[in-house]
Amino acid sequence: AQKITQTQPGMFVQEKEAVTLDCTYDTSDQSYGLFWYKQPSSGEMIFLIYQGSYDEQNATEGRYSLNFQKARKSANLVISASQLGDSAMYFCAMREGYWTGNQFYFGTGTSLTVIP
Amino acid sequence: DSGVTQTPKHLITATGQRVTLRCSPRSGDLSVYWYQQSLDQGLQFLIQYYNGEERAKGNILERFSAQQFPDLHSELNLSSLELGDSALYFCASSARRDRDYEQYFGPGTRLTVT
């Protein structure tokens, strides 16, 4: 089974609107970390946000928030007030056994296009 | 600029050859991670070092090896190269005490095996 599933290959959003990028994960561990990364067309990778499995509150970093639903094993990324610069590939990832000591699993990514 | 440097930026080599990719982490970061991104395999975690010691291992082939030196820079060695090794290789660093999950990525090394 896939450890990380991103079911939206491509998404479009109007500038200034909010958008949700879906991510589901599969693990039997109690301790794990969930990550989102952004990759613009220029190719660099940018860390966006992190959620630990024991964190009770949803993580937020500026316009990014992670909608963490543990029972459903989902970790959706919400981008508020989309900007043209948000157009990029977005990858969801998981690390089992808390954040260190174990390998990362990545999803296949979602391509987001922000429309003016 | 993330503060993580990788050299070279591009590398073209032939099958069967050996190459070394270099990564210098951000000042003060103790962890270095290596990732491979290819069209076939997507993004894959290869290996992590922390302060000179191997911390975690991912989908790293036996033909690949890595190390982290006392000055904390890291090298990824790829040998007996195959066409399928063509990919973008990223390194990242982390380990600020209060946000040790936050990784900063280098610009990547684009490897083309012909």
Structural account:
The complex is a heterodimer of chains A (116) and B (114). Chain A is 0% helix and 51% strand. Chain A contains no helices and twelve strands. Chain A has strands at residues 4-5, 10-14, 19-21, 24-25, 32-39, 46-52, 60-61, 64-69, 74-79, 88-96, 104-106, 110-115. In chain A, the strands form three sheets. In chain A, strands 2, 5, 6, 10, 11 and 12 form a six-stranded mixed β-sheet that branches. With 114 residues, chain B is an all-beta fold. In chain B, β4 (31-38) and β5 (42-50) form a beta hairpin. In chain B, 0% of the residues lie in helices and 53% in strands. Chain B has strands spanning 5-7, 10-13, 19-24, 31-38, 42-50, 53-57, 64-68, 74-78, 87-94, 104-105, 109-113. The N and C termini of chain B lie far apart (31 Å). Classes of the chains: A mainly beta (116), B mainly beta (114). Chain A binds chain B through residues 33, 35, 43-47, 50, 52, 91, 93, 99-106, 108-109, and chain B through 2, 31, 33, 35, 42-45, 48, 50, 55-59, 88, 90, 92, 100-105, 107-108.
Strand/helix succession of chain B:
EEEEEEEEEEE
The chain pair with the largest interface is: A-B, 21 and 26 residues
Order of helices and strands of chain A: EEEEEEEEEEEE
* Largest sheet data of chain B: 7 strands, mixed
Taking all Cα atoms into account, the compactness measure Rg of chain A is: 14 Å
- Give the integer mean of the pLDDT values of chain A: 93
**Proportion of helical residues of chain A:** under 10%
